[in-house]
Amino acid sequence: MKNKIYSYFFREFLSFFIIILFSLAAIVWAVQAVNYLELVIEDGHTFTTYFGYSLLTIPKTITKLLPFTFLVSIVLTILRFEKNNELIVLWTSGINKIKIVNIILTISIIITFLQVVLASTVSPTSLTLSRSLLKNSELNFFSSMLKEKQFNDTVKNLTIFVDKKNPDGTVENIFLRDDTKSEKEKNNLTKEKKTEDKESSTIFAKRGYLTKRDSLNILVLFDGVIQKESSEGRINFLNFSKTEFNLSQYSSKTITWPKVQERASLGLLRCIMAYNKDSINIVWKFLYKIADKINLTANILDTKTYCLYKNRDIINEMNRRIGMPLYIPLLSLIACYLLSSRKENKKVYLMKYIYGFIGFAFLIFAETSVRYSGKFFYITVLYYLVPIIITFLNYLLLYKVFKYETLR
After folding, report:
1. At what angle do helices 327-336 and 97-117 cross, to 10 degrees?
2. Sign of the CA dihedral with 180 first, then 186, 191, and 197 last
3. Which of 192, 202, 340, 388 has a CA positioned 20 to 30 A from the CA of residue 45?
4. Do 10 and 129 lie in a common domain?
């Protein structure tokens, strides 16, 4: 009998949870998808790349919304049972309130585990795939770059201007500014150099057209002049009757280097160990010894070279992935205080807002404090201890209140 009651409570919660989570995720994804349109409009990626990139960001959106969705779902589930007098039926049938608290806490632990998996594995993997999709996508937007009387700098190191665009696809009075640094100069750059030498070129042409040859976008130009500016400051002029300009060598301005939230959790942990290997902090030394025993410090020198992010940013990200889910059981126990209210109590409607606000305040605290957790070690410790200690104390309080409570 009791197992059926617990299963029924879980099904009711799950229905709220799924509906709210996917509804909020759909709204957030739609808003983000509009912002991602700049990948097509400004950066020149195809619509296939756009849809693939936007879909791969869904796990990140779900991960962000999951704690808030859990809080709302568990509150609505309790309120629904209270409204339908089902809680009164449970109490009169001999079900102790602490049993319901335990099932709610069990559900929160399951959601916590789900949040850890999403935040530490699924979300970084999907974000890495989305970044790779942008990096490896082909830019098929050069025809749209040739707009009348507009300077277009969509691609990196290239600016294009055309005075007139004809219906047959030809353009007139073309201006191109190429600021790409030569490979020779790239290889000769040293750390002591404060400025980079560039060999830029400017092309003026009376007419031209865009064509595709062997999967390459070629801009064919007629009757013009090429101005090349060397690193020494000399300007050389070259007249031409016809020349071809390979546009496929250019890439968009889209950032293709992975951000810290797109890195694998194991790699970030190795980065943390590499940065704090020689720390004088006793706790860091203890953590390093543990990491060394489980072979987490393998190739740590190569890892340190690989880590191009700040130590603080890496710790913030790992705390977000592992520490944020610890607040979910705390949210569940805050919602459990609604079990102490009775339907005839005039304050019951006020209580749902109070406990909902308290839970939301903890979410804001978790989101705000995680941004500073990597700055000082003691903030990191507090970030993990706060939800654990407060969850334990709240459970003791609920156990004391509900364990021997009768219907009267």
Report:
1. 160
2. negative
3. 202
4. yes
